[in-house]
Sequence to fold (1010 residues):
Amino acid sequence: MQISGRDSNRYQTFTRRAALLAGAQGVAFLALAGRMYYLQVLKTDQYRMLAEENRVSMRLLAPLRGNIVDRFGRILAANRQNYRAMLISEQTPDVEATLTRLSNIVEIDDFTKKRILRDISRSPRFMPVTVAEDLTWDQFAQVNINEPDLAGIVPDVGETRDYPYGEELAHILGYVAAVSEKDLQQAEGNQPVLKLPGFRIGKEGIEKTYDKELRGMPGSSHVEVNAYGRVIRELAKDPGTPGSEVVLTLDMDIQRFAWDRLKGESASAVVLDVHTGDVISFVSAPAYDPNQFNMGYGTAEYKALLESPYLPLMNKALAGMYPPGSTFKMVVAMAAVEAGIDPSHRVVCPGHYSLGSHDFHCWKKGGHGALNMHEAIKHSCDVYFYDTAKRIGIEAVADMAKRFGLGETYGFEVPGEKPGLVPTPGWKRAVKGEVWHPGETVIAGIGQGYLLATPLQLAVMTARIANGGYAIQPRITRAIGGNLLPIPEPKLIGVSEQAIRVVQGGMNGVSNEIGGTAYRSRIAEPGMELAGKTGTAQVRRISRAERLSGVLKNEALEWRQRDHALFVCFAPVDEPRYALSVVIEHGGSGSGAAAPVARDIMHEVLKRNPPRPQAGNPPGGPKPARTG
Amino acid sequence: MLDLRRFTGHEMRLGEKLIEFNWGFLLLLLLIASIGFAMLYSVAEGSFSPWAFRQAARFAVGMGIMVSVAMIDLRLWMRLAYPLYGIALVMLVAVEVIGFVGMGAQRWLNLGFVSVQPSEIMKVTLILALARYFHGLTLEEVSRIRNLLIPLGLVGAPVALVVLQPDLGTAILLIATGAVLFFSAGLRWRYFILAGVSVLAVIPVVWSRLHDYQRNRVLTFLEPERDPLGAGYHILQSKIALGSGGIFGKGFMEGTQSQLNFLPEKHTDFIFTMLGEELGLVGGLVLLTLYFVVLMFSLNVALQCRNQFGRLVAIGVSMTFFFYVFINTSMVMGLLPVVGVPLPLVSYGGTAMLSLMFAFGLLMSVHIHRNLEISRGPSAFW
Fold:
């Protein structure tokens, strides 16, 4: 190429520099290619993994909660379909208008509406928000039919916990409810399933104790999501493992019967199998409706529960502590036999017992005259037991009480057990810092004073008497996930057969001999006879003046001031299989209020479990049968 | 060399110009643009709307502009260089004023029938103006300080206006374009060394005056993992998309990063990433090779030209194109900070596409008029 002379300088310089620029471009392109090689060949595995992590998201699937059934497999707690209406806000141009239209079918109050709008504002626009739950079939059908008019509303079927027997089992099953902040903090390790919307966990009772077993293992769904978290499609699914079924030892028929019998009272009843410790029935009245706890109690209703004098939220069979009253006399009697007192030894009851300047009164004003141990139990003579307790001392009484299960907890499956109290001089010194007075030993002889026992403990005590002195432990769970739970071999308490026989005989006298304190409440059918003991626990102090002018009848007192009525029994008397305790708060007398109820419940138990034809008792008393 | 002489001093006819027009080069541009159409089709999940079709329509208009610009005599472009620069500068000022009134950053000027981005127009007219200026100087005159004041002003005025917008990416591109023309015109090395040292010296000053978002971009470029959900998100997701594409890619329309929206701005600034994810290293290298062919062709146009104005225009267009390609691809690969620079011919965007085709028209005009000798003095055609 020929360039005119003038321009040749510029042209040469330009050519040189253009070549430099071209070289620079070449280097730059090589650098780009090198970078692409680095990213797309050398590091591709790493970035491929990151891309997958971006793309694939794991969604937890809540497992189906296990059922709770009674010993015959009847369903006590299960999952039921919950018809819901969900709202996807991106599918409606006007959320408020949609809600207004929906409120023609389902009532939506202002409070709920606020909650819905808050939920919508907090979640992505494609995420369904629950608008109404627990719709009736009619409402659900109407939502479905009107779906074209209800932009954004999606009918949906979820699972919710259902307690078909409601309050009859509230104190056993407890309830499930939404996971709280506190639950999240207390949860062991990382349990992401707890954060699933609508997930519920056991908050009380068996639902709480066996929450892990009932809950099962959450499944997962691997889904492809876009950058905003919207699910594009499902890639893989693991349905998870449903929760285990929990089989209780309960017989729901007996439970219902006992509930009906105690309804309206502030009372509790516990039926035990004396050989296995299986709880056949376990009632605490009144109660609450666990279904409402699940769906959320209204504040007014909840306040009413809290403020009721009958304490419906309290599990009285487990946590109600009462002076055992005369039901404690068996313990004193056995302690006496073990201390060497001859059961045929007679004590004269003049109607009162004097210790120093203080008089202790028998419930029978005129006195019982001379009584041996059998007669003392049968007539529930107070003076006999004042005298006996005083003679053998409080330590012997307390020791025997503890051997029969008082003053301790059993690790029962329903949470909330209270230990009650078996007082000793050592206890009083340690806790109250005071010395033990001899008078306190005297009133402990009739189950008053510091003594406290729960209805469950009274049933255990009675069962241990009935089975010939085996330290059975109460239990309410028979099997979990198809595996029967083993019953530990009960230890012998180490009470002489003589002591057991005398006490069993005395209880037989109470119920089946004319003059026994509960003779009116006997079961007459042959083979079904029960042996019991009444108890009347005084809740107020009777002043000297009142004693002189005549003790007020319970009917004359206001409810809170009346005595607690107690009754414990076992049956059949010849071959004991069941033990029962009944406590009716402020019910009046044990014989008048508690014994008839106990008789009816025990009768029902025996009707459903008729005694086997007698093959003659093996020598040495009935042996605990091994079942389960 | 008779054929060369033949053209000297006499006017070419339109027919001759159309024959001289390098239609193969236009085909090459069409090929590159078509890759863009395909990617825009994929971005829209397999649809020509809203992007692919409009982009193709713009490219068609752009081709018309390119051919028309190429037909116009280079000497006329030389005469129009300063007026066009002036118009572009006025538009930049207008945008600044409107932006001030509108209380916010403004890069667009609404001319009633069409919205234009004056800074894009300025990139082309700056090349013209500088080429025009240096054309009139001998090699010795170029390096005289008093002769540098005017071209420095030509660069400085639009840079200042663009920085005010604020549009750091365009400002850097304008400075780079200016530097290329100074360099090609033959300015002595010592000035470039001096300028390099000065730039290093003022970096701390500039840093202190940068907007927070600009600083963040630089910081996150240096360390993208610093804030993976915030400012570093773009770079990180882009690298993941590219890297996961591997050698052959995930397949057309199968890019998970792009199709599931993890990749931002994938129809504009990050379209190269999408190409890399779906068509892999192979696809990316094919596009880079095509770009390189464009660059080598335009460099050749510059070298073949017998007049300084044409040479400078050609190298200016060529290097601007190179800067676009390099800055954009480096950015999506994590080699440079995120500075909103589109990938030429491929990214979706109107003004950028049209001004680029205008520039290629100038390049082709240089090619057609390569044998024209234009005297240095202004008297030659004024």
Remarks:
- The longest strand of chain B covers residues 109-110.
- The two ends of chain B are 30 Å apart (CA to CA).
- Chain B has one domain: 20-372.
- Residues 271-304 of chain B form the longest helix (34 residues).
